[in-house]
Amino acid sequence: MLSPINSSRDSFIKANVFTEMTIMTHALEPYDLPSNKPSKGSTGTLKGIAIVIVLLIIVAGLTAIISPQLPNIISPPKNGVRVAVVDTGVDSTDLPMGSVVASRSFILPQYGYDLMDTSTDDARPDDVPHGTLVASTILSSSSNAVIVNAKTISSEGSATTLGIVAAIYWAMEQNCSVINLSLGSDPTLGDPIANAIDDAISQGVVVVSSAGNSGDSGTSGSSISSPAMFPNVIAVGALDELGEPADYTSSGPTRDPIMKPDIMAAGYVSTSSALYYGTSFSSPRVAGKVADMISYCNENGIPYTPGLIKAALMKSATHMNYPEYLVGAGKVNYDGAIQILSSFNSSSTVPNLTYINPKELPLDYERLFYNDNYTFGVQVINSKEIAYTINVTSSTPDVFEIPSSVVVNQTDIIPLQIHVPSTGPTLFSANITFTGDDTSDYLSISFTAADAVAHVALDVSHSTWSIDTHYGQFRELYKLLTKNSISVTEFGLGTTISYDLLSRYDAVLVLDPCSWNVNETDPVHPEEYSLPYAPDEIKAYETYFNNSGGIFIAGLSNRSLDTSAVNDLLSWSGFSFSANRYPANGNYVEVNNLVAHAITAGVTSFDFVGANLTVPENGTVLAWYSDVATLGSLEGNGTAGRMVVTGTNFFIDNWGLTSKYDAGDDRTLALQIVLWLMNKI
Question: What is the DSSP secondary-structure string of 22-56?
Answer without folding.
Answer: -S-EEEEEEE-SPPSS---S--SS-BTTEEEEEEE
